[in-house]
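User: Could you check the structure of this?
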Amino acid sequence: MTIALTYSMLLLSEVPTYMAEVRLAVEEDIPPILALYRQLVIDISSGELEHDASPQEYRRTLAKMRSLPCLELLVAEHDGEVVGTMMLLIVPNLSHRASSWALVENLVVDSRYRRRGCGKLLMDYAVDKARASGCYKIGLASDNRREEAHKFYLSLGFEASAKGFRLYF
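Assistant: Sure, the predicted structure tokens are below.
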């Protein structure tokens, strides 16, 4: 199923040219999404080390995610292959005159497709969806070690504006 606002673009590169489309993730996308996550620099908590999720757990989790109207797990697909993914969360909010806010999490593009417009395609979708949902801001966190990703976000108009804190379990 393609999302109502179709997001597709040519991924710019030297020959050949690639076409990507953003859509909601489905069960069949779980293995390639997990492969993309392995390309991220992700800290693993001690709780995660003690638990290995089964294929059934991943399917249940995706079904739970898809049941939440404020959350979208998205993929960028090129020629039948998942080449990027991200999660977008739109959160209702009482502050800022009851304006929602948006959060992007786990944005990753396959290393073979980076710098070809796929990440921008995903982020354009997120920004447009946040604006259309009446959000007053969209934010994301990026690991301090991901300097290339920081340059990418800055190029999209994002500002490094806060100091993040985490507590892992």
